[in-house]
Design a protein that fits this description.
mainly alpha, 23 helices, globular
């Protein structure tokens, strides 16, 4: 095999491509977060009183598309012979959505473009995890998923901060130049990538034809004629055992039908697992809280501290700066896979959210309020990072345990695409409902009721972790 093809089909190249693609889509989601309160007024002429509503709606549109299309792409990924084509389609869709968002002059067109971006993200996350499962052996899958999750975190860290800086220094257009540049690099990586399954099929065909002495006739009509003749000759001298491969027996069909009727569909089987549901609920909670902060924090710091787009972007560093500790969080979850420890992380994250009430204390100086806001947001990011780090890999382990307890339950099908489509769906549901809840709770009731509701939600995630299925 040529050296260049070995590189393009290597594990590290596939993992790097999936990580960069995930980073790109997360960057696209987050880069306009601190800019929305200002771009809505300038681009779409939205009145100040409606900025909170439309900011939340544009962020929720992204999550809505992910939520609706993730199960569909999960099913298609399980049946499709090529992940690469899906990746290329997502790049084209993202490009079209980005150009549409830049040119949009009204709120509904902006919402549609964000929906289109979410549609593309649903492809990336679902197909990306399935591509990893195809390429990487199960013992190494946890580490690879950790790399993808880290790339998502990096996108979350950089995008709001860079979005605010680019908007202030170079204007609205600079955001889309950055986005389109990332899409171009991503498309190049995807074009270069060679899937493991495709490479194996080609290698097997080459080896098969070389064994028959057909090297120079590969791809010609003569080679097909020779292959058919060889099959005919081998068929006349083959045993009955060989013929059963070509002609199925009635009793085999009956057994297969019975097997299909015995087990439920893969999606239903996964939903029935308490451990799978626990992972999905924890994913939804963490992303709903983060999605609600995306909608609420830029507006809160704008009116509370008179911060502009740069401050509205920098505040998200407090939530995501603990991402550098992700490898440590992964190792701790592997070494101490305790249900009680996981519950403790969610309880501590809820406590840090409850303490955000102090930020609204009028007896404190503005400086102290800023310090408390940054401190407790950082504490929340730290505890939630350690609590949610093993989510994707634990979902993979849950699927493995189901197969071990019930051999043949998935009838030999690759279930990873279905499992990760559910994970992406939970992720998207958080991005969908988080901004909507921020619009309702923060927009209508204020900061106090808003952070209390988030604290209760975080603590609630500790309950199914303790009671839902064996963990270790």
């Amino acid at each position: 095999m040529p050296v260049f093809e070995r590189i393009r089909s290597s594990n590290w190249f596939i993992i790097s491509t999936v990580c960069f693609t995930s980073f790109t889509d997360t960057f696209i989601y987050g880069v306009i977060v601190p800019v929305l309160p200002y771009s809505l007024k300038e681009q779409a002429r939205v009145p100040e009183v409606n900025v909170q509503f439309w900011s939340s709606l544009l962020l929720a549109a992204f999550g809505l598309a992910q939520f609706l299309f993730s199960p569909l792409f999960g099913c298609l990924a399980g049946q499709s012979s090529s992940r690469k084509r899906s990746f290329m389609f997502s790049s084209l869709a993202t490009t079209a959505a980005t150009v549409l968002l830049y040119s949009a002059q009204n709120t509904w067109l902006m919402a549609f473009s964000r929906f289109f971006q979410g549609f593309s993200a649903a492809i990336v996350y679902t197909i990306g995890f399935a591509l990893l499962a195809d390429a990487v052996d199960t013992p190494d899958l946890r580490a690879c998923i950790g790399c993808v999750m880290f790339s998502l975190d990096v996108g979350m860290v950089l995008s709001p901060t860079l979005g605010g800086l680019l908007y202030v220094k170079f204007g609205y257009k600079s955001l889309f130049i950055a986005i389109l540049s990332l899409i171009a690099i991503n498309a190049l990586l995807v074009l270069l990538l060679i899937e493991k399954k495709k490479l194996s099929a080609v290698t097997e065909r080459h080896a098969f034809r070389r064994s028959r002495g057909e090297g120079s006739e590969y791809g010609t009509f003569q080679s097909m004629f020779n292959e058919a003749a060889n099959q005919e000759r081998s068929g006349t001298s083959s045993s009955d055992g060989d013929l059963t491969i070509l002609i199925p027996h009635p009793e085999d069909s009956t057994t297969e039908v019975a097997c299909h009727h015995h087990y439920a569909t893969p999606l239903v089987t996964l939903i029935k697992s308490p451990r799978v549901l626990t992972s999905l609920y924890r994913t939804w909670v963490s992303l709903m809280i983060l999605g609600s902060f995306d909608a609420a924090l830029p507006i809160f710091v704008k009116y509370q501290f008179s911060w502009g787009p740069i401050g509205g972007g920098l505040i998200f560093l407090t939530l995501t700066c603990s991402s550098s500790l992700s490898p440590l969080a992964g190792k701790l979850s592997d070494k101490f896979p305790s249900r009680w420890l996981t519950s403790l992380w969610f309880i501590l994250s809820g406590a840090s959210l409850f303490h955000l009430l102090l930020v609204n204390d009028d007896t404190l100086t503005s400086k102290n309020q800023k310090i408390l806001l940054c401190f407790f947001l950082t504490l929340y990011g730290f505890t939630m990072n350690f609590g949610t780090r093993p989510l994707g890999s634990d979902l993979s382990q849950a699927v493995e345990s189901i197969e071990l307890e019930n051999p043949g339950i998935f009838e030999g099908r690759n279930i990873s695409a279905h499992a990760y489509s559910m994970y992406t769906g939970a992720y998207a549901a958080g991005i969908l409902f988080g901004p909507l809840w921020a619009s309702l709770a923060f927009g209508n009731w204020g900061w106090i009721y808003y952070v209390i509701s988030l604290g209760i939600l975080s603590v609630s995630a500790a309950i199914p972790v303790r009671t839902g299925g064996a963990w270790g």
